[in-house]
Amino acid sequence: MADESFFEEAREQSVVKGAILGQYFDAWTNVMLRNLQKYGGDRIAYIDLFAGPGRYEDGTESTPLIVLRQAITKPGLRDSLVTIFNDIDPSSCDKLRTEIGALKGIETLRFQPNVQNGEVDEELVEYLKSIELVPSLFFIDPWGYKGLSLTLIHRASRDWGCDCVFFFNYNRINMGVSNDAVEQRIDDLFGRELAQELRSELEGLTPEDREAAVLEKLCRAVGQSNDGRPRYVLPFRFKNDAGTRTKHHLIFVSKHQLGYGIMKDIMSRQSSRAAQGVASFEYCPADRNFPTLFELARPLDDLQDMLLVEFAGDTLSVKEIFGRHNVGTPFIMSNYKSALLALETEGRVEVQSLQGTRRAGTMAEHLQVTFPA
Q1: Predicted TM-score (pTM) above 0.85
Q2: 229 C-beta neighbours (distance < 10 Å), count
Q3: Looking at the domain assignment, is residue 60 inside a domain?
């Protein structure tokens, strides 16, 4: 069960988390609805396994109500969206049902929301493994890590159109990695082999290196599925109010690079700081008090150097460069265009258009870039 104070106030981080999920849900549903008939389906699903009461004590809506409001306002979505909200706390389920019932227009949904009271355990995972899901967006937001497992994450992102966003409570998991009492839970989350590697690597590391090691192992575990389908994994970090330590991460998982690219754009916009237009992929309330610190970094300069090395002697379109290079980096398409324009201005690459004239100062995706050998 979530800590009782969890929904007492809508902390800034919770608002940002809701914005990230809400924006991705909107983009994801647009893509699914365009392709649904092609695959012979008539419905998509949003599944929230730790839904909570639907609203913080200060009145701010949490993710279930954000999602349902979008469904009500989009005609195509009203007729195709199935929503399942689960929570282990009966009182949270009752409050959520009340909040849902009070939403204006909720009766227009073809499939009325299903609020369930149950535990997220191995029995649920085995059931999900036994069925083929319609295109589904899973949100897995436990307070700690009970119920969160590698098997569940892989299952939630297995079938066509299925993506997963989950809450990774770094503080609790960091404390649990070396705790024998929760060894099995850590093994369930990272997989036995990577969990053992992690335990052997953490001793003596600085807090920063320790966090990097934990997150790297998590992303490896999530990205290497036993169904043979690699996953694209994208973390977004939340820091405490002082900006001195990490509180938790929001982790996105998808089999498709399109979903990865959409979420990357969303997370970049929700980042609380950026240098040379390159987002930090984190939210830190203290950033507004220290706006100049991150600006000392020069990430676009680094990107220029990366591209010159990676594509030496090649000629590729801007779109091809982005597709081949952006996964696993903090860079979005606009960053690549800025870096390539700078390289062209400095005479370090040649740029040609095969589609007629080119507007000055632009770097369209179809342009061909030739890198020196």
Answers
A1: yes
A2: 11
A3: yes
